[in-house]
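Worked Example 4.2. Read the sequence first, then its structure tokens.
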Amino acid sequence: MTTPLRIAMWSGPRNLSTALLRSWGNRTDTAVTDEPLYAHYLRAAGVDHPGRREILAAYDDDWRRVTDWLRGPAPGGQAIWYQKHMTHHITDDVDLGWLDALHNCFLIREPAEVIASYAEVRDEPTLEDLGLPQQGRVFSHVVDTAGTPPVIDAADLLRDPATVLAALCAAVGVAFSERMLWWPPGRRETDGVWAEHWYGAVECSTGFAPYEPRAVQLDARFAELRAAADDLYQRLAAHRLITVDA
């Protein structure tokens, strides 16, 4: 059996990660997997997320078994396996050696927009909830073992989806497909059971929404969180694969 190209996209929450999952899922040569380490994270971190009980009942919470599977054949024997990963699901006990079998990429978003969006679902997000320290840890491992990986920004993706996606495809060694620019609305069998809590907007979408600059006004209580998040965001933003001017 031919070894698939396994693409791991590392993102924090509220970063257009599910829209990007839709984009890759609309290719005819690609299998997609949605947040395979979510159950591990809920069990290990002991956090109370929406749908916690259902997630733990439906998914394997042993990160070793899950990561063994993620390094194997792609579902359906597809040539490409796109894996959507949330960086905050990587708890401190997870050894990162399994990443070496994947083509790791990173999706980032301006922190003020992330904080504002996340706070609509959970009132008091922490830096760890946003996944930025964990994203830095994963990024450092990839740089040390494989060199600087592709990094794309959510704002650039919305400004010019075709250009950014074509650059991303070139970076991972596959041909760009215009099918990545649109998709049918609705839920997918590949969506996690948490979709009902988080995926309302993407389920109504049929493509990337036009970019609209947001004048985000954060409460004063988020000032320290935003400053710390900005520092971590800028570290990866310096390595963006492509920057699309506003």
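Now turn to a second chain, presented in exactly the same format:
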Amino acid sequence: MRYLPLAEVDRQAMLRAIGAKSIDDLFVDVPEAARLGRKIEGLADHASEMSVERQLGSLARQNMVAGDVPFFLGCGAYRHHIPASVDHLIQRGEFLTSYTPYQPEIAQGTLQVLFEFQTQVARLYGCDVANASMYDGSTACWEAIVMARRITKRTKAILSDGLHPHYVSVAETMARFTGDTLEVASPRLVAETDTDRLLAQIDGETSCVVVQYPDILGRISDLSAIADKAHADGALLIAVVTEPVALGAIRSPGEMGADIVVGEGQSIGVGLNFGGPYVGLFACKEKFVRQMPGRLCGETVDAEGKRGFVLTLSTREQHIRREKATSNICTNSGLCALAFSIHMTLLGEKGLRQLAELNHAKAVAAADRLVQVPGVELVNESFFNEFTLRLSTEARPIVRSLADRGLLGGVSLGRLYPSVDALQNGLVVAVTETVTHEDIEALAAALQEELA
């Protein structure tokens, strides 16, 4: 069985049809510096399907499996226990309908779960309305900034120094093409957030203030003062939540005055899969609903008076009114939103609060144990299930050494901020319900040896 279906004669015929002399001609617009310039080692040009499966399986076995080792990674992607029923239910026939539910008569299962998903996200975030999901948290963050620009008619966004650097990077990339001005800063290894800096910078030209909650160092701050100052100057407050489980224990951003709340939903229902998939959550106040990107599902009745579900607002339909589209997003993360909604339904409000309580208790126990290690200092005064340690030496080599020992000991701030010298000793540690007492002891013992 051939895995690659095209023979050389087929390729030549296709090249002649499009007027190209060689396959290389298809990549002339790619800069030389961005080209690999060689073949990928270990992969054959031609192989059978079984051979390819064998080879890729061998490569996959070189990866460290998260569930097999002590795991303390976080910073926007979290390992939680996902009930087996989630994967079972997302495969039911009611949901195996059209991916994009343009035809409601054959997509009622998908539409109903998205309707319920929106309610769950809105309640979780403390907002009036939520959409049917976005690509991921980082793009949802950028869409919120653009939405604020449409509402305020201003182009200056102030980003908290505690906003995840990957989210900042996405915003900076997009702002190059829209002309938005982003005021950014790098965090400091201190217990206080940059609330004072944000309050001082808000003025009559500010479109929005973007604050992560809890932030990249795990710090938690009251957003009320920022919301009040932003509103006084005609700006909006955007809150970013990368760990939705935290909202089972702390106040929702909407309760504190946030106008738009966005974030990542991966940690509920969607497992870690070497970098994806993800699901962006997006909610806002009702008065801004027509400026919200993406799509919304609504409840209606059919011709026979029966309850049904449809796409109520689809303002992202560029092919219908492209010049008036609120966004360039062309779909939503339907499967991940489904998994999120099913897991959230299985938990219920009581279960989510219990899960959050368990996460926080384990994180507190871990922090208390790790600060007993010489050369380890806790930065945070408050945190949920993620906190930052200041080590007596650079954290990145320590993390590498811990991985060689078979222990994923956290995320070094030197990896996230390679050019900021003041952050090189920072180590962000996430502790969820999947972490055991033995895992915490293993991390403490390994850190003690590494820092001795």
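Notes for the reader: Residues 96 and 110 are 8 Å apart (CA to CA). The radius of gyration is 24 Å.
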